[in-house]
Amino acid sequence: MPEVIIQVLDGSPALIQWYQWGALIGFVVAIGAMIWIFMDAERSSEDATIWKSLGAIASVLCVPALLARMHSGFALEMRDALQLLGYLSIGSLLLAIVSVIAHAATRRPLGGLPASIGSLGADRQGGGQYPLQPPTIASFPSALPSGNNAPTMAGGNNVVSGTAVGGAWGPWGQGSPAGARGEAQSAVAPTQFMG
Fold first, then answer.
1. % of residues, the chain, pLDDT over 70
2. pTM surpassing 0.85?
3. N or C: which end of the chain has fewer CB within 10 A?
4. CA distance 81 to 33
5. Do 50 and 84 form a contact (C-beta atoms < 8 A)?
6. How far apart are CA 41 and CA 64, in angstroms?
7. Does residue 157 fall inside a structural domain?
8. Distance (Å, rounded) from C-alpha 147 to C-alpha 51?
C-alpha cells in the first residue's frame, strides 16, 4: 500500500484498513456478484436489466480505490480524493450485495415460469393447466375417385389408389379395401420406399 494513503488518511483508521485489505476484497466480491447475476439471469432466461446494470456499476465503482491501493502514482495524483474514493468503494460493495439479494428475491425458477404457476404444461398467465394429451391424427373421407372411375396409367394401374408402376404399395394400394370403397383414411400416410 502506498505511503501517501497513510499520510492523507491519518485521521481515519477505518479507511486506512479499508485500503489495506477491503478495496481488493470489495472489488473481487463486486465482480463475483456481477458475474453471478449475469449467469443466473441467462440460465433462467430472464432479462434482469436493473440488477445486471447495478452489478456492473458496482464493479466499476470499486476500480479507482483498487488502483490507488495498487499504484502509488495514481494515489499521489488522487490524494485530495482518496477519502471520497474509499467511501465510494465501500458504497459500491454494498450496492453489489444489495443487487445480488434483490435479483435472488425477484428471479424466476429455472424453468422460466413464475413459481406460482406450478407443473409442466401450465400456461404463462397462471390461469390453468393445459391438458397433456397425445397429438391426434385427423381423418377425412376420401374425396378421390375410386374403383372404375379412377384415372389409370398406360398399364392399367390405378393412379389414385397408389399403385404406381406395377403393384400395390402401402395400405392404399389396389388391395386396400378402404381405398377401393372411399372410406375414411388417415391424413398421415406411412412413407415407404420402392427398391
1. 55
2. no
3. C
4. 26
5. no
6. 28
7. no
8. 71
Residue with cell 489495506: 20
**Which DSSP category does 128 fall into?**
-
Q: 141 — phi, psi (to 5°)? A: -75, 150
In this model, does residue 65 exceed pLDDT 90? Answer: yes
Report the alpha-carbon distance of residue 183 to residue 174 in Å, rounded: 14
Written as one letter, the residue type at 191 is T
Q: Which of 23, 31, 77 is nearest to 55 (CA)?
A: 31
Residue in the structure block whose three cell numbers are 470499486? 62
Q: Are 23 and 62 in contact (CB under 8 A)?
A: yes
Handedness of CA 123, 126, 127, 130 (dihedral sign): positive
Residue 79 structural domain: 3-106
Contact call for residues 62 and 91 (beta carbons, < 8 A):
no
